[in-house]
């Protein structure tokens, strides 16, 4: 297991912008997880949406470290690619909303207009910047009503750096990366030997030991869900890895970006029966499961029941604590919203911007069984003894 000193060096490099774009990939022995507290699997998953981004700028090392500290089961990220083919953690194909690029005069000439998912978009695009240039930018909070004190303190991180944050945690923490805008990325970024964005994505996961079907021994050691709004990308990567995959589902009026299928088609019984050959679950926008009207909850659809009937998990997004995101039924109380979705709708995981509040709710309502805690402590003690004895 890596020493605390080694972990500290990596974390400091990530937080404050070390000179290396990617820390050296550690050997498997350095990442031994046999004595770590295991991933909980007895209750729905707490998925840290872009890290704990309700508190800190999204998809930064700080946001992911905070989410782990607050009890996240999985840390979630979006993966895009730089001009020179490096995979990075970033949500938008443009840099405008969450970095200082607009104020960086040296990049003023990089502003472009491209077609993205059928619409003309103007801004500073990730695909027009090298990794070194992206690392020179500083990240800021997306929403003006959230804490602005951390703007400018953190940089964009790579896919590998994100993986290392999870692997070096003091307990087993899963990762939940999204193959983001694959059609656009494959149009603008080219790799050698005809490789695609999806190839580089899976190669990175395999290089760091991520493999195995859901709940397999390999998966429990290094938990992973691969997600995408693009069905063809999920089908394509199924030929390279058996790690579990989740089909994301957008608003009812938004077609899939690669196959141009409607929401109604991809949530039909026939399509769910087809896609379950490639995915273990779906990740719908929560308002497609329970459509609201005038900010009040409407009648729930049968999407969750139909997915569960096909043994598909349901991980809706995104849960946020602010009043502007809470339907009136919840009386400005995010814990009431958690209660509704976990107990009445019965989903299998939640994407949340506020990892700490979801963790507190689950610890209050469904804490670790005492026997499980004792067993984990005993296993940890035995493992430490064996290690000290040279085994």
TrEMBL record:
<protein>
    <recommendedName>
        <fullName>glycerophosphodiester phosphodiesterase</fullName>
        <ecNumber>3.1.4.46</ecNumber>
    </recommendedName>
</protein>
<feature type="domain" description="GP-PDE">
    <location>
        <begin position="44"/>
        <end position="362"/>
    </location>
</feature>
<comment type="similarity">
    <text>Belongs to the glycerophosphoryl diester phosphodiesterase family.</text>
</comment>
<dbReference type="GO" id="GO:0008889">
    <property type="term" value="F:glycerophosphodiester phosphodiesterase activity"/>
</dbReference>
<keyword id="KW-0732">Signal</keyword>
<dbReference type="GO" id="GO:0006629">
    <property type="term" value="P:lipid metabolic process"/>
</dbReference>
<keyword id="KW-0319">Glycerol metabolism</keyword>
<keyword id="KW-0325">Glycoprotein</keyword>
<keyword id="KW-0378">Hydrolase</keyword>
<dbReference type="InterPro" id="IPR030395">
    <property type="entry name" value="GP_PDE_dom"/>
</dbReference>
<dbReference type="GO" id="GO:0006071">
    <property type="term" value="P:glycerol metabolic process"/>
</dbReference>
<dbReference type="InterPro" id="IPR017946">
    <property type="entry name" value="PLC-like_Pdiesterase_TIM-brl"/>
</dbReference>
<feature type="signal peptide">
    <location>
        <begin position="1"/>
        <end position="21"/>
    </location>
</feature>
<dbReference type="Pfam" id="PF03009">
    <property type="entry name" value="GDPD"/>
</dbReference>
